[in-house]
Design brief:
The chain has helices at about 35-50, 60-65, 70-75, 85-105, 110-120, 130-140, 155, 160-175, 185-195, 225-230, and strands spanning about 20-25, 125-130, 150-155, 180-185, 200-205, 220. The chain is α/β, with parallel strands linked by helices. Strands 3-2-1-4-5-6 form a six-stranded parallel beta sheet. β4 (about 180-185), α9 and β5 form a beta-alpha-beta unit. The radius of gyration is 18 Å and the shape is elongated. It starts with 19 loop residues before the first strand and ends with a helix.
Length: about 230
């Protein structure tokens, strides 16, 4: 039976036991930050022109919403837009982002090759706070859909938090918590893994703050360092 550890309980990390590796998306496998900045700029320019917003969200404000679940990111940025107009701008935002994601790959350098290599030894999963459409567009690029055994996200499992996505992964895989590894770039990834009782590797990224990953079981500088950590 899967055991759930306390968030504060250290979890031994034994690479030899790992059978499934779950990856966060943004900042870990992909970088849609510029697309997000561009899309938000266009949408808020329209809102300002129409008198529905007073200012553009800053880069830091947009980055701070990365990792939020469901509509939380949009609601945070669009808090001043009138309620009766917010959904219209949200759909415009989503439409522009869909077009960008359909047009190009946002995978970080070496990610496609890394995942294809890892898939020879492990089952791979995603564990993201995104919606199903967003995840499908990410996996449609670079042949990633073929190497992900468990394409999970908050939208696909109706999760209220990322730890729910990881618990669903444990349920579907039938594995013990010591056999599943989470890889992510933010404190929210570390916290989610702790709540689900699985070990976690932090990947440094430009979106994280200093010492944000200090409670991870291991921290690597780039996603490519994962193979070295796993002694492959």
């Amino acid at each position: 039976m899967t055991q759930i550890h306390s968030q504060k309980t250290p979890i031994p990390f034994d690479a030899a036991q790992i059978k499934v590796i779950a990856f966060d998306l943004d900042g870990t496998l992909i970088d849609t930050s510029q697309a997000m900045l561009d899309v938000n700029h266009e949408v808020f320019s329209e809102a300002i022109h129409n008198g529905d917003a007073k200012k553009q969200p800053t880069k830091d404000e947009i980055y701070s919403t990365f990792g939020m679940i469901g509509d939380e990111a949009w609601n945070t940025l669009a808090s001043e837009i009138p309620d009766d107009r917010a959904d219209q701008y949200k759909e415009r935002h989503n439409e522009l982002l869909r077009k960008k994601m359909d047009a190009q790959s946002f995978a970080l350098p070496g990610v496609a090759e890394l995942l294809k290599s890892l898939a020879d030894r492990y089952d791979l999963a995603t564990a993201s706070n995104c919606g199903e459409g967003y995840l499908e567009r990410v996996l449609a690029q670079d042949g990633l859909k073929k190497v992900i055994t468990y394409p999970l996200c908050a939208g696909s499992v109706n999760a209220e938090q990322k730890s729910d996505v990881l618990r669903e992964l444990l349920r579907q895989s039938g594995l013990d918590t010591s056999q599943v590894l989470m890889v992510g770039d933010r404190k929210s990834d570390v916290d989610a893994a702790r709540k689900a009782g699985i070990p976690v590797v932090g990947v440094r990224s430009e979106f994280g703050e200093e010492n944000e990953l200090q409670t991870a079981d291991a921290v690597i500088d780039t996603i490519g360092d994962l193979k070295k950590l796993l002694k492959l």
